[in-house]
């Protein structure tokens, strides 16, 4: 009986991670980051493009932080389980735009996680100030 129990536990342990690992990452929906910002991605079309909105919780301004539109694309929609993607946000409260690139992952527990990198470009008064325009 001890052997059967051991094999059953091992079989269950092997099934759970593979089910989660086989799950595709879906960008559509509401995403929150560790800083309190949230993003809503609407449905992807057949070309992999999408739109949505971004509400940042962090900004270098004293203006009201407004919900801002985003436009993006996912690489090869439906062909990858953990796709790469990119999107831009046109901030409604400042003269800047941010470009994000990243990848969507599904961890062994089935949780979807976005890993992203971003660049923010703000408007500057002249070309000589361009060195301080990108973060």
TrEMBL record:
Query: Which cellular component appears as one GO term in the record?
Result: extracellular region
InterPro entries tied to this protein: Avidin, Avidin-like_sf, Avidin/str, Avidin/Streptavidin-rel
Location of this chain's protein in the cell: Secreted
Q: SUPFAM superfamilies of this UniProt entry?
A: Avidin/streptavidin (SSF50876)
| Signal peptide stretch | 1-20
Q: What are the entry keywords?
A: Biotin, Disulfide bond, Glycoprotein, Secreted, Signal
Any idea which GO molecular function terms this record carries?
biotin binding
Q: Name one Pfam family in it.
A: Avidin
Covalent S-S links between cysteines: 25-104
> What does this gene product do?
Forms a strong non-covalent specific complex with biotin.
Q: What does the subunit comment say? A: Homotetramer.
Family label: Belongs to the avidin/streptavidin family.
* Name of this protein: Avidin
Give the lineage. Eukaryota, Metazoa, Chordata, Craniata, Vertebrata
Q: Which gene encodes it?
A: Avd_0
